[in-house]
TrEMBL record:
SUPFAM superfamilies: S-adenosyl-L-methionine-dependent methyltransferases. Belongs to the methyltransferase superfamily. L-isoaspartyl/D-aspartyl protein methyltransferase family. Its EC number is 2.1.1.77. It catalyses: [protein]-L-isoaspartate + S-adenosyl-L-methionine = [protein]-L-isoaspartate alpha-methyl ester + S-adenosyl-L-homocysteine. Keywords: Methyltransferase, S-adenosyl-L-methionine, Transferase. One of its GO terms (molecular function) is protein-L-isoaspartate (D-aspartate) O-methyltransferase activity. It holds the Pfam family PCMT. This is Protein-L-isoaspartate O-methyltransferase. Signal peptide: none annotated. The keyword Hydrolase does not apply.
Amino acid sequence: MPSTSHYSSLSVIASRYRYRAPLSLSFLNRTRRCLHHRRFILTPPPPLAAAATFLSRSSRLPNTHFFTGNHHFSRMERFFTGSGIGRNKDMVTHLQKYGVIGSKKVAEVMETIDRALFVPEGTSPYDDSPAQIGYNATISAPHMHAMCLELLEDHLKPGMHSLDVGSVSQAAILVGTGYLTACFAVMVGPQGRTVGVEHIPELVESSIKNIQKSAASPLLKERSISVHVGDGRQGWPEFAPYDAIHVGAAAPEIPPMLIEQLKPGGRLVIPVGNIFQDLQVVDKNMDGTLSVRSETSVRYVPLTSREAQIRGD
C-alpha cells in the first residue's frame, strides 16, 4: 500500500498546479493507479506534476485512456505519438517496446489487421490516439485496443464466440470501424463466431466495407463474422453464449443482458463509471458467480442510445 508521504506529495503537486477540487483518498488512489498503468509510455514514469496537471483536464478527452497521447506532456510520449510511424508493423513494434503488447498472438493479429483500413482518410492511422469516425463516435487509440486484446486473448481461441458492444461502435466486436471485430475474428478463426453490434446503420455499413478490405475478408464471406444494427446494451442473444465480450463505451453499471450472454468460464471487458471510469474485467465462474476486478482507470464516451449519440449527449 502506498505510504502517506506518497499521497502527500501528490496533494502538494496537484495544489501547485491549481487543481481546485478536494483531493480525496479515492482521487489520489486513482491518480497513483493511472501512473502505474502508464508504465509502458515512460521509463521512468512521467513527472507527477505533469500527471496532476493532465488529470485536471482529463474529463475533456472522450474515449481515451487517461494518459493517451493527444496531450504531449512528456518528451517520450511526443516521440511515441507524433513520430510519424509509417507502417502498421512499426506501430505494433512500438507497442511491444513500451510493454503494451506482451503476447505474440496479439502482436500477430494487430500486424495482420492494418489499422489504416479502419480510420477515415486524412487521419494518422498509426498515432497512439483516438480518432473521430463520424456520428459522435471514435475509434480507440491503438494501446487501448492492444490492452483489451491482451485481456481477452485466452477467451479468443479458435472455435470460440466473441461479442463486442458499444455506443460508439463497439458491440459484439468493435463495430463503428470494424477494427476489433476483424481482430477478434482472426483470433477465433472460421470455426468460431464473431458478432458486432452498432446502433448507427451508417457505421455498420462502413465497418463491413472496412472488414472487406482487410485480411479478415474471407471470414466475412464464410459468415463467421456478422455485424448487426442494434442496441449494444442488449448484446446479441442469437449467437450467445459468448466466450469473450468487449464493450467500447462506458456504462454506469454492467448491463445485465451482457452478463446473461456471457458463457461460464467467459470474460467481459467493459469501462464502468461516469466522470471517473474503471476498465473492469468480469469473469463468469463455472458455477455462474462473477469475479470482478478493475484493470486501470480510463475515459470513454458513454454507452447510450442512438438518439443521444446523434445529439452528442
